[in-house]
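F.,

This is the one I mentioned.
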């Protein structure tokens, strides 16, 4: 198929000369040296060693995660103790950077940790309320998980603790199984069990390098889900701001607004709303000042704690609790109690616990890894995703046994930690110890803290979850991605959290399946004056080789979903080309560029065999160029190479073309 010629005179001359040279080249024979070179390179392709088996890949993944590259290369003379030390350094990255830790670094971490604690304490209490748990469980979650993450995590800035989205997930999903109002004890036990399974899934994702499962929730879906969740969380806070005693357990917008409307018909106290909104405005003003002047980063960080202190003092001094202001009342203090005996592995709700745990594991990992990597990029170091998953998993497993619910990396607290100048994860230790001291000695001071303040603190953190800019960029780049984004957003907003996730994942899968079922097949041509073959649609100056059709399969996998459509597409293409009236020479050779195909299954090999048979029956030769490691291995195992001929496998497209135009192919006998 002839490509469109350049418009300028010089370009036209060049293209014309190139076509002439190609046609002249078709009349020449390859020299013995060229034939020897092509044959030798074909051997490189066909005689390559077998790729690792599936079992070897699984065992290798575990070794790569657990052991460093240095461990893998150790020889038999290496002392056993040295291997153990290297293994410990790999499992506990803290041992690597702790050797170089200095007093000046601790000064920065101490300041960052204290600043972090001032934000963490009020947020943890608020997020526990969002998860429909007692306040102390939010504080417990800010003690044990950060300590474990410090020893096993690879991020220096990531602040660990409860977060809004995961708290909403737990509230929305667990409350459908056990009502927290009717049976709060069983509800709390089920949350601990969910936390255990969340950690188990996260650890398995890291050990078996299954992080790609998290990627099924695309960035577009995450943007939509986070935005929808932010609005739902904001609407849920109307319960605290308006001191509504009877509120809906549903999370969709319609149900929440109806519950709010009904509350106005009964007694409600505007003092809660005035108090909450006043301190919400105060927190937002401090955040605006902090953004305008980075030196005042500490101002928005301590604003929530200052709000708690001031509002508590106001309520205590004015006895506002006697005039309708709802307060927290008793907060249980002391160290994290053990909750091992509260894990319900024999519960009739075990299946629901596993399902909710998987959802929480994916969402928590997605948020933590995204936040950690963004700040690691700013600092100029690499964060190990698989080790992060393992660290998150073990900290949540340990948390489930010490009265904690699901913890992950928080964007708002991580940003505070970063701008406070943290040097290492020791800032998490400082924060955890501060929260622990608060649990031990100061919980009694929270008795008069108004619930409306906790709602205002949560509301102040929500704008960071809505990313308008990224949503607009998604719309400009890929409309199908934006559909997943919109599906997640409206699913969370008008149905439920689970429905939003299901819609987003369904659209993402549909996009993958659509691309797999209808992969693009492109004709290649030679760029003038080069041995480079490119797509003629993208590069109009690329010239087709006479009597040879070069096709690139733009699919990473040639499998049962797309093998037959690809076979039919190729055969129809050849038939259409040979039917053209203006064709000078009929197609007598097909070159399949398989450089983009990373793997092939049995259906793919059968489709190639059928394609070869039908082409040969029409006097057309089939050649395979640039096959990848797994592909050529499976083609050899399936005996396809023996059927098509070893002289029909080439290292590059250029060598395949040279072989075609220089061999004077006349029929199937040559192959």
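My design for it:
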């Amino acid at each position: 198929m002839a490509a469109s010629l350049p418009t300028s005179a010089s370009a036209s001359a060049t293209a014309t000369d190139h076509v002439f040279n190609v046609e002249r080249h078709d009349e020449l024979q390859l020299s013995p040296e060229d034939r020897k070179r092509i044959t030798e390179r074909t051997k490189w392709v066909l005689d390559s060693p077998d790729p690792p088996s599936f079992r070897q890949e699984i065992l290798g993944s575990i070794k790569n995660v657990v052991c460093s590259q240095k461990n893998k290369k150790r020889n038999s003379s290496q002392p056993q103790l040295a291997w153990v030390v290297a293994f410990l350094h790999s499992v506990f990255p803290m041992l690597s950077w702790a050797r170089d830790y200095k007093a000046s670094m601790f000064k920065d971490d101490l300041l960052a940790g204290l600043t972090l604690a001032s934000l963490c304490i009020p947020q943890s209490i608020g997020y526990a309320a969002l998860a429909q748990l007692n306040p102390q469980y939010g504080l417990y979650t800010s003690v044990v998980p950060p300590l474990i993450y410090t020893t096993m995590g690879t991020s220096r800035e990531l602040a660990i603790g409860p977060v809004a989205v995961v708290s909403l997930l737990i509230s929305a999903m667990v409350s459908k199984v056990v009502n927290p109002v009717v049976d709060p004890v069983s509800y709390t036990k089920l949350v601990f069990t969910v936390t255990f399974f969340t950690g188990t899934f996260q650890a398995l994702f890291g050990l078996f390098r299954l992080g790609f499962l998290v990627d099924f929730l695309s960035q577009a879906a995450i943007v939509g889900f986070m935005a929808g969740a932010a609005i739902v969380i904001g609407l849920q806070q109307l319960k605290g701001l308006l001191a509504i005693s009877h509120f809906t357990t549903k999370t969709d917008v319609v149900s929440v607004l109806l519950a709010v409307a009904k509350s106005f018909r009964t007694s409600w106290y505007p003092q809660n709303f005035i108090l909450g909104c006043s301190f919400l405005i105060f927190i937002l003003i401090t955040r605006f000042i902090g953004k305008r002047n980075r030196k005042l980063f500490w101002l928005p960080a301590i604003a929530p704690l200052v709000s708690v202190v001031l509002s508590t003092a106001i309520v205590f001094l004015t006895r506002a609790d006697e005039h309708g202001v709802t307060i927290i009342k008793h907060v249980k203090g002391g160290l994290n109690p053990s909750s091992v005996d509260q894990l319900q592995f024999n519960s009739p709700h075990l299946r629901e616990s596993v399902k909710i745990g998987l959802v929480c594991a994916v969402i928590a990992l997605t948020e933590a890894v995204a936040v950690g990597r963004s700040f690691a990029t700013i600092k100029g170091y690499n964060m190990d995703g698989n080790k992060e998953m393992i660290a998150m998993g073990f900290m949540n497993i340990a948390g489930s046994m010490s009265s904690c619910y699901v913890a992950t990396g928080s964007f708002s607290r991580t940003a505070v930690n970063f701008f406070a100048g943290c040097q290492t994860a020791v800032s998490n230790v400082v924060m955890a110890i501060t929260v622990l001291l608060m649990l031990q000695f100061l919980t009694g001071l929270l008795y008069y803290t108004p619930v409306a303040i906790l709602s205002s603190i949560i509301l102040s953190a929500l704008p960071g979850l809505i990313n308008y800019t990224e949503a607009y960029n998604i719309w400009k780049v890929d409309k199908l991605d934006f559909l997943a984004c919109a599906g997640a957003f409206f699913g969370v907003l008008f149905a439920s959290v689970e429905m939003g996730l299901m819609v987003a994942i369904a659209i993402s899968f549909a996009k993958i399946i659509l691309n797999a079922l209808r992969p693009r097949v492109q004709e290649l041509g030679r760029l003038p004056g080069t041995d480079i073959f490119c797509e003629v649609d993208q590069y109009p100056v690329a010239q087709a080789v006479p009597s040879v059709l070069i096709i690139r399969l733009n699919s990473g996998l040639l499998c049962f979903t797309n093998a037959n459509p690809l076979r039919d597409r190729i055969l129809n293409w050849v038939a259409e080309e040979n039917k053209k009236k203006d064709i000078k020479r009929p197609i007598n050779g097909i070159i399949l560029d398989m450089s983009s195909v990373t793997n092939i299954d049995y259906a793919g090999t059968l489709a190639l065999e059928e394609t070869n048979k039908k082409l040969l029956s029409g006097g057309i030769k089939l050649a395979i160029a640039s096959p990848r490691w797994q592909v050529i291995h499976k083609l050899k195992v399936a005996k396809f190479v023996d059927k098509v001929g070893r002289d029909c496998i080439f290292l590059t497209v250029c060598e395949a073309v040279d072989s075609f135009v220089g061999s004077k192919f006349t029929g199937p006998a040559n192959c």
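The beta strands are 159-161, 408-410, 520-526, 533-535, 548-554, 557-558, 589-593, 599-600, 621-625, 649-650.

Talk soon.
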